[in-house]
């Protein structure tokens, strides 16, 4: 009988150690790479993404797996941008039953030079607005966080959000208008764009706007 108790205690101890390790340190795997690549392709079928191994940490209270990968590269045609990290949560119950795994993605970019980002966007959709921006913007950078949710068919819901920060933009147009040090925070949600703490210098004159809402874009 004592041997049975010792065996049960040993199994319990090993289980606690294993779950603690998963909850605190986690493991690295490439098991979820294909699912993440599939969701990126749902954004645009021409996207190619280079993923490193993914780190998985258990959330025992929510019965979810927190999945994160860092240092990815997103490519489209001959253009690419660097991704700081990609995160998602996966239900353990859904994973065990092999149902639809990824319900959301959070994508955070590294600091991106606008002179690199705009050609990347033009490779996706070559609009007149992007063409003009590429010609008039001389420098500047952007950091963005994108939150996406997927329906049961794997399609992106229209409640996605984009938050970010644009810094040190310089614009020159019509040979007489010069914008310097254009900085602002932005939030995009459901066709509405909010600019916060916008600071711009136009031909040496400084302008400040605490909150600007642009609708139906």
Describe the fold and architecture.
The chain is of the alpha+beta class and 217 residues long. The protein has 5 helices and 12 strands. It has helices at 2-24, 33-43, 92-96, 114-124, 128-136; strands at 27-29, 48-50, 54-59, 64-76, 79-91, 104-109, 112-113, 137-149, 161-173, 177-189, 192-202, 205-214. Strands 1, 2, 3, 4, 5, 6, 7, 8, 9, 10, 11 and 12 form a 12-stranded antiparallel beta sheet that branches. The longest helix is centred in the first third of the chain and has 23 residues, at 2-24. It starts with a helix and ends with a strand.
Short description, anyone?
This protein has helices at 2-24, 33-43, 92-96, 114-124, 128-136, and strands at residues 27-29, 48-50, 54-59, 64-76, 79-91, 104-109, 112-113, 137-149, 161-173, 177-189, 192-202, 205-214.
């Amino acid at each position: 009988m004592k041997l049975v108790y010792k065996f049960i205690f040993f199994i319990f101890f090993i289980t606690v150690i294993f779950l603690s390790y998963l909850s605190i340190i986690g493991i690295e795997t490439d098991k979820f790479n294909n699912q993440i690549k599939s969701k990126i392709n749902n954004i645009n079928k021409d996207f190619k993404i280079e993923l490193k191994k993914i780190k998985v940490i258990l959330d025992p209270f929510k019965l979810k797996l927190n999945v994160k990968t860092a240092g990815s590269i997103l490519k489209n045609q001959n253009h690419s941008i660097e991704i700081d990290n990609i995160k998602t949560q996966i239900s353990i119950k859904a994973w065990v039953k092999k149902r639809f795994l990824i319900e959301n993605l959070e994508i955070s970019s590294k600091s991106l030079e606008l002179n690199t980002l705009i050609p990347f966007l033009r490779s996706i959709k070559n609009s007149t607005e992007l063409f003009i921006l590429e010609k008039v913007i001389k420098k500047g950078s952007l950091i963005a966080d994108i939150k996406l949710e997927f329906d049961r068919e794997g399609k992106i819901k229209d409640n996605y959000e984009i938050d970010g920060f644009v810094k040190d933009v310089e614009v020159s147009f019509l040979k007489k208008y010069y914008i310097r040090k254009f900085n602002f925070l932005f939030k995009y949600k459901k066709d509405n764009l909010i600019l916060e703490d916008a600071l711009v210098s136009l031909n040496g004159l400084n302008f400040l706007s605490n909150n600007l809402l642009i609708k139906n874009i």
